[in-house]
Amino acid sequence: MKGRYAPSPTGLIHVGNARTALAAWLSVRSQGGIFVWRLEDIDGPRVIPGMAEAAMEDLAWLGLDWDEGPYVQSERSAFYEEALARLAAAGRLFPCRRSRKDLQSIASAPHGPEGSAPYPAAFRPERLDTDWFEQVSDAAIRFKVHEQPVEWIDRVYGRQAERVDQTVGDFVLKRRDGLYAYQLAVVVDDLLMGIDEVVRGADLLDSTARQIQLIEALGGTPPAYAHVPLVVNAQGEKLSKRDAGLTLRSLREAGMRPEELAGYLGWSLGILNKAESCAAAELAPLFTWEKVRRETWVLPKDFPERTKGT
User: Fold this and answer.
1) Which of 47, 100, 156, 209 is buried deepest, with most CB atoms within 10 A?
2) 77-186 and 2-74+195-199+228-307 share a CATH fold
3) 127-174 residue pLDDT tens
4) pLDDT digits 0-9 by tens, 34-93
5) Is the pTM of this model over 0.70?
6) How many Cβ atoms from other residues are within 10 Å of residue 84's Cβ?
7) Residue pLDDT, tens place only, 10-38
8) Is the dihedral of CA 12, 13, 15, 17 positive or negative?
């Protein structure tokens, strides 16, 4: 089997990122699979120089390794464009020139998971020229979703179902400024790289139904999905790459040993019965998805001191 970790180089890896990466790596290693490293850097303005190398260095310190990569999304535009051309030929795309005012006009509709009303099918153009895709240059490109529910089983959260037409509607695959959307890039890359298990944070659970529709439209088979619960600080706030004191780099510099952090994260996931020093590789034979907790993990106020001597 093949799994992957796909960070965005927008800041240093923090404890929450590391916990998800560890779960992805443990699942692959426990199954004797192939672990792929992919760099999701298509949002150029948010990329910070040096962060890609820092992420690899910090997770290697934790004890993680990889068998393929790094693959770099910003170098893979030709693959995304080819996928768009296939979807356009199949009649699943259309250009969108709607203004913000147009979209605000549907603000009274029920809001989807991203806090906005779903893009209505009524906004689709009535007809398109046969060569519209080759000519388009001043519009976003949207994907026509279908009306059937998308169903899948998440390895952490269990059975899931979503009507994408009711929650999100037709969604953007390429922005008007030419940037490819996350939803397109991740699907194309997972298909081309043969990824059959996607492990990521629970904040991306809402992307899954859209990605399954895209995968099927491109003739692929959806992978297995596992969404790892998020880590929040003692105030209940989601960790950010701005939380300097909770990055792997800062913990390393403060003298934490990788076995202390690996054991603590393994315990927080539910792999160990208590927090104790343990190399990441020692966790692999113990790993099963049935053990992984569904609850958001709250870092205690005395972290990282609590890990000392574990």
Assistant:
1) 209
2) no
3) 999 899 999 988 999 999 999 999 999 999 999 999 999 999 999 999
4) 999 999 999 988 999 999 999 999 999 999 999 999 999 999 999 999 999 999 999 999
5) yes
6) 20
7) 999 999 999 999 999 999 999 999 999 99
8) positive
- 104: which residues sit within 8 A by CB, 6+ positions away? none
DSSP state of 42: -
Beta bridge partners of residue 38, listed in sequence order: 71
- Whether the ω angle into residue 149 lies within 30 degrees of 0, i.e. cis, is no
> Domain residue spans in the chain?
2-74+195-199+228-307, 77-186
Q: Is 303 left (phi over 0), alpha (psi -120 to 50) or beta?
A: beta
Neighbours of 106 (CB within 10 A): 16
Q: How many whole angstroms separate alpha carbon 45 and alpha carbon 36?
A: 25
Task: Specify the amino acid at residue 72.
Answer: V
Write the CB contacts of 8 (distance below 8 Å, at least 6 apart in sequence). 39, 40, 41, 43, 46, 47
- C-beta atoms surrounding 285 within 10 Å: 9
Supply the mean pLDDT for the chain: 92
CA-CA-CA-CA dihedral for 121, 116, 188, 229, to nearest 10: -140
Distance of CA 185 to the CA centre of its chain: 11
| Dihedral sign, Cα of residue 23, residue 25, residue 30, residue 36 | positive
Q: What is the homologous superfamily of the domain 2-74+195-199+228-307 according to CATH?
A: HUPs (3.40.50.620)
Q: What's the pLDDT band for 241 if we cut at 50, 70, 90?
A: low
24 closest CA partner among 153, 201, 158: 201
